[in-house]
Amino acid sequence: MRLCLMNAIKFKAKAPLLLHSFSLPTAKSTLAFRGVLTPPNATPLSLTKIPNTLTFISSPFLSCRAAMVPAACVEVKEKIELTETEKKIFDRLLNTLLHFNLQTQLRVAGGWVRDKLLGKECYDIDIALDNMLGSEFVNKVQEYLSSTGEVAQGLAVIPSNPEQSKHLETARMRLFDLWIDFVNLRCEDYSENSRIPTMKFGTAEEDAYRRDLTINSLFYNINTNLVEDLTERGLEDLKFGRIVTPLPPKATFLDDPLRVLRAIRFGARFDFTLDKELKKVAACDDVKTALAAKISRERIGTEIDLMISGNQPVKAINYICDLTLFWVVFSLPPKVEPAVSEECNRLSAAYLDASWQLIQLIGCSNFDDEQRRLCLYSALFLPLRSTTYKDRKDKMIPVVNYIFRDSLKRKASDADTVISIHKSLEKFLSLIPSLLSNEDVQITEVGWGEEFYVPVTSKLRVLTGFLLREIKDFWRVALLMSTLLYPTDIDCSKDIINKHFQLDKKKGIFKSVDNAIVKLGLEKVWDLKPLVNGKDIMNVLQLKVGGPLVREWQQKTLSWQLAHPSGTAEECLDWMKETHSKRIKME
């Protein structure tokens, strides 16, 4: 089977024609492209299907390509195969056109087309309309569905916000349990003194050139069942794994600076190569200034979260470092203590790399998706764990809190969890030698600042139990962070930044400590129900109301319970009465 990229056109004016073609070898077939170089005033004619082929339509503005084409490196499917759900969705949309006798062209844009051609499933369907707003078409679909007895779900309109580079109104609706976004095709005009464009309806080609990347500029025309490559680069760049902007990168990035981070994310996700000129422009001061000033922190945070949660977080963060974007993205408050070193961003990336590799080595099954995500954030911000700043009330706050809540606008629980993990590391590091050797730990050596009325032989279990109750489900994340910093008597940062990770050794420490904790019966210790409650304690102390003394004894009785895993409530109360009686006599 041959997959042909053809351009059938007619001329408004006579002009010489120049035909050219080239073939891209694939494992199963030859991918052939044929085009016609035409004058700018040429207009498209009807599309032509060739027997046993899937036809692609390209722009009339065909750019010349080098005669020599490099070997293929990415397998691109020869046709888009729709799922049953997608067929039903597109059928409803086409029936809407017929019902109202609309001449609208419906095109699925961007990522869905790209992923389908790469053989990946995609549930993010964005549809571009050539002659009406998304909200107008959604209303038509709703009216058509009502006429057939079906009910449209989840209708919504998201307004444009040009100040934050969101130039288009987006309408949404839910069909067959999938969210579908509808927008109009666009082109933009910029006045000389304004960075906010004037939006108007555009052609499909104008819209394609305004996309972030050529691999995201492809359309799937629902009316004709054709893939449209209107930049003449999308299929080729997808085929050869290239991250390129349709227009010169500076124009594309200044239009919407978030595209810099999207280019990084897609380059990392697909292991594609960033274009040389794209990298140069991404690192320039104009683009960095625009990214910091023009894009909302929520949008930046969303992109970073997608990178960290993705399949290549290390590659993405390394790109951010290489393009000198680290402190633009992870911005700090004006004054921090202690001052952040120049190499901190590289050290952050190196800790991320070490953590990512160690997770793979230990086994991903040890961490769920949320644990893995926050583990990588914990590693990324590990060099900043002791850095603080003053808030408006002159209170010293971990700078990691600022990064999550202000720089990335992530949820407060993310900041709280990562800070909790960082705070647990000193305690975890103090316990690792005893957990590795299964020897008794001396409380004076640990310096926890707590008073425990338990036998020395039980202190290891008690201390470990209290620590795990603090960080709960994230104790293995804290353990993994601790192994990167262990042993504490040497500065491991130089080894980390030079990629001397000693991963096999770190894995051995992790597994040994993990096994010791499980053997102690503490794997889910935070679910342990106290043997005695506040009311029991108040009865022993002969108190009428609670207070700090009750909370103090709650900790003490819990420490007794951890030291005596087979103990009963009665035994715990007897111990409490005896201890309390001795304390009164001493006073």
From TrEMBL:
Upper classification of the organism: Eukaryota, Viridiplantae, Streptophyta, Embryophyta, Tracheophyta
SUPFAM superfamilies: Nucleotidyltransferase, Poly A polymerase C-terminal region-like
The keyword Nucleotidyltransferase belongs to this UniProt entry's keyword annotation: yes
Species of origin: Hibiscus syriacus
Alphabetized InterPro entries for the sequence: NT_sf, PolA_pol_head_dom
GO molecular function (one): RNA binding
One GO location term (cellular component): mitochondrion
Family label: Belongs to the tRNA nucleotidyltransferase/poly(A) polymerase family.
GO BP term (any one): tRNA 3'-terminal CCA addition
Key words of the record: Nucleotidyltransferase, RNA-binding, Transferase
Keyword Transferase (UniProt): yes
Pfam families: PolyA_pol
Poly A polymerase head domain segment(s): 106-243
Protein's name according to its UniProt entry: Polynucleotide adenylyltransferase family protein isoform 4
